[in-house]
Amino acid sequence: MQINRNILTLDEFTLQQLREFPQATGELSSLLRDIGLAAKRINVEVNKAGLVDILGDYGTTNVQGEDVKKLDIYANTQMMGVLKHGISCAGIGSEELDDVVVFDDEVSNNSKYVVLFDPLDGSGNIDVNISIGTIFGVYRRVSEIGKPCTREDFLQPGKRQVAAGYIVYGSSTMLVYGTRRGVNGFTLDPAIGEFCLSHPNIKCPPAGNIYSVNHGHFFRYNEGVRSYITACQQKTKDNGGPYTQRYIGSMVADVHRNLIKGGIFMYPGTTDKPKGKLRLMYECNPFAFITEVAGGRATNGIQRILDIQPTELHQRSAFFVGSKDMMDELDTHLAKAQ
Ligand code: AHM
């Protein structure tokens, strides 16, 4: 078999980036490679999800009498494991856990990053074979290196992320991550078990024609959001349309598609849940960071997501993210309705 040397694996790519910065310690590269490893392990289990009838339902005992772990718990364990055993992470926060986990060993205490993640977003879609994902944000800790990390390291605004990314377990499995230098996408090549650079330097098209929102909540959105959705429906070819509505209910898949093709994703607050459903730290901040680096925008309808100072780990936020021109038009509708 001939090896195509034009293809860069995730490991090769992160090392190549590192070579451009001789002063870099390689900790971030190493951390991203650790997450790539967890993603591969999670991917194997996600691909088996359709076999639950044969292998046993998650959270139950299978026909061989073995306990079958719930997939989101499995994903959480894998993410935690690679980060704990790696050399770059002082502690983690996870959507699955009530509180942060401080690793507190000599190597971890000397590591400069903490990671916040949602191990398996959209997990309600697993049993119907719809794409799901893992989302993560990486922060440089503010506490003293050499000591255990602290809560303050995690409660930082999203603009302090040094990297963020997601894995989408879909028709193919992709890992996309961004640093301030750009956003790059890697597709898992099952033949060699490696993520290979497939989408270099991703840019979010400034104009798009896809809007993604849960229409079922329409009458519980505020006037500005309803006005914008109505404008999306009324687009014609004379004013940048027509638009198409796409919402699969799995954020990683919805935002990934819009990032590549151009579009807007909205999870607004509703009359009964003014802050919506999504979690600022695990879902909104990483996507806001990636989208901004790719040229798009992200807000909670009032302010830039990345400027929000979090007060608690699991806080929720309304979320609007996507192509710049569409976000600008949304703002006009929100402002008019004030
Ligand atoms: P989860 O944390 O239970 O997985 O929920 C998060 C998911 C997102 O991926 C998706 O965008 C949203 O929930 C869909 O919610 P809804 O069904 O209310 O539109």
Overview of the molecule:
The protein is of the alpha+beta class. It folds into two domains: 10-199, 2-Layer Sandwich (Fructose-1,6-Bisphosphatase, Chain A, domain 1); 210-337, D-Maltodextrin-Binding Protein, domain 2. It has helices at residues 10-19, 27-47, 52-55, 71-85, 106-109, 151-154, 223-233, 251-261, 280-293, 324-336, and strands spanning 89-94, 101-102, 113-121, 132-140, 161-169, 173-179, 182-189, 194-199, 210-212, 244-245, 263-267, 297-299, 319-322. It has an eight-stranded mixed sheet, with helices on both faces. Strands 10-9-11-13-12 form a five-stranded mixed sheet, with helices on both faces. α1 (10-19) runs antiparallel to α2, α2 (27-47) packs antiparallel against α4 and α7 crosses α10 (324-336). The protein is globular and about 60 Å long. It binds 2,5-anhydro-1,6-di-O-phosphono-D-mannitol. 2,5-anhydro-1,6-di-O-phosphono-D-mannitol binds at residues 121-124, 214, 249-251, 267, 277.
Topology:
Layout: H1 10-19, H2 27-47, H3 52-55, H4 71-85, E1 89-94, E2 101-102, H5 106-109, E3 113-121, E4 132-140, H6 151-154, E5 161-169, E6 173-179, E7 182-189, E8 194-199, E9 210-212, H7 223-233, E10 244-245, H8 251-261, E11 263-267, H9 280-293, E12 297-299, E13 319-322, H10 324-336
User: For the residues shown, what is the average pLDDT?
Assistant: 92
Domain tally: 2
Poorly predicted ranges: none
Give the helix/strand class: alpha+beta
- Helix run count: 10
Q: Sheet with the most strands?
A: 8 strands, mixed
> What CATH architecture of the largest domain would you give?
2-Layer Sandwich
Fill in the CATH topology of the largest domain. Fructose-1,6-Bisphosphatase, Chain A, domain 1
CATH class of the largest domain: Alpha Beta
For the record, give the distance between the C-alpha atoms at the N and C termini, rounded to a whole number: 63 Å
| Biggest sheet, spatial arrangement of strands | 2-1-3-4-5-6-7-8
Could you spell the SSE succession in H and E letters?
A: HHHHEEHEEHEEEEEHEHEHEEH
Q: Provide the β-strand percentage band.
A: 15-25%
Gross morphology:
globular
* Portion of residues within helices: 25-40%
